[in-house]
Amino acid sequence: MSKKIFIGNLPFSLEEERFKELFSSCGEISEALLIKNKFGKFKDKSKGMGFITFVEDSAANRAIAEMNNKEIEGRLIKVAEARPLEERPEREKKAIKTVAEDERDFD
């Protein structure tokens, strides 16, 4: 059975290949996902977190034990078992008022 781990506080300069390489010594990896910015000035740059799925549970446990609080490029990374995505309540959509709708009188 496979097990997914969460890795936080990664260096923002970390590339996907290096990310996968850091954890490959713990066991066979079936998926590595480095979370990146999608928009703006930092588009396609790491957000400093990611997920790795190991083929074997024992490899994931080894990665947690060996890599948690390890220094990578001057940062202490945090490694833990990934939690399932929780349902979030739907946000209330707010209407945007235009100046004409505001009806303020500044006289």
Task: Tell me, rounded to a whole number, the average pLDDT.
Answer: 89
Amino- and carboxy-terminal Cα gap: 71 Å
Total DSSP E strands: 6
Can you count the helices? Answer: 3
Radius of gyration over all CA atoms, rounded: 21 Å
Q: Provide the structure class.
A: alpha+beta
Strand order of the largest sheet: 2-3-1-6
How do the SSEs run, as a string of H and E?
A: EHEEHEEEH
Beta-strand proportion: 25-35%
Largest sheet: 4 strands, antiparallel
| Low-confidence parts | none
Name the overall outline: globular
Helix content: 10-25%
What does this 3D model show about the protein?
- 22% of the residues lie in helices and 29% in strands.
- The protein has a domain at 1-37 and 61-70.
- The protein is globular and about 55 Å long.
- The chain has helices spanning 16-24, 57-67, 99-102, and strands spanning 3-8, 29-36, 46-54, 71-72, 75-76, 78-81.
- The mean pLDDT is 89.
What key attributes describe this structure?
alpha+beta, two-stranded antiparallel sheet, 3 helices, globular
In a few lines, what is going on in this structure?
This protein has 107 residues and is of the alpha+beta class. It has helices spanning 16-24, 57-67, 99-102, and strands at residues 3-8, 29-36, 46-54, 71-72, 75-76, 78-81.
